[in-house]
Amino acid sequence: xxxxxxxxxxxxxxxxxxxxxxxxxxDSAIYNLQWFRQDPGKGLTSLLxxxxxxxxxxxGRLNASLDKSSGRSTLYIAASQPGxxxxxxxxxxxxxxxxLTFGTGTQLKxxx
Amino acid sequence: SAVISQKPSRDICQRGxxxxxxxxxxxxxxxxxxxxxxxxxSLTLIATANQGSEAxxxxxxxIDKFPISRPNLTFSTLTVSNMSPEDSSIYLCSVxxxxxxxxxxxxxxxxxxx
Lengths: 112, 114
Hints:
heterodimer; A: mainly beta; six-stranded mixed sheet; B: mainly beta; seven-stranded mixed sheet; 11 strands; globular
């Protein structure tokens, strides 16, 4: 059974700092990995999708990497801003299925 | 990305009643899903809503409790039946883009059962 873990569970940083969020998964036979952000009481916003054959994806200040063999992904946020404050979720899709298995999330707070 | 709307956005219901949640997408999609997010938890897949056939439920979820309809490629409903306080959660629908299998989520329905 696939299990997805995110570390740290919570993170507080001053504005302008670069930061890394970690995601690990137990079964490396994944089809893709997706990073989402969730604002309090809201739905999920897709940030980045990495296919299993890719090593990284970039969008603006965000960069996600994938090391499938070791079961790890990182989300790098450059020059953090208070508007980045949210919960960040990673989710993996296993080969041969449609289900996304979600991590436990990292709650990020960027302070002025 | 797909534009997904859900109704209602929130509701407070009495124990033993049922609530039907609607999900509307602005374009035709093959794959639609229903997830549950219990307080303080991450998301768990309830079922895949199949157009023209019965939904495919994940382990721990049954049709009698969570009946799902998918009458066409842009619309689905999830009913939470015979509710108890343990059903208090955010319920989210999602769709998958055919081109690259990216999933997009609706804004969610926040359900409180008293």
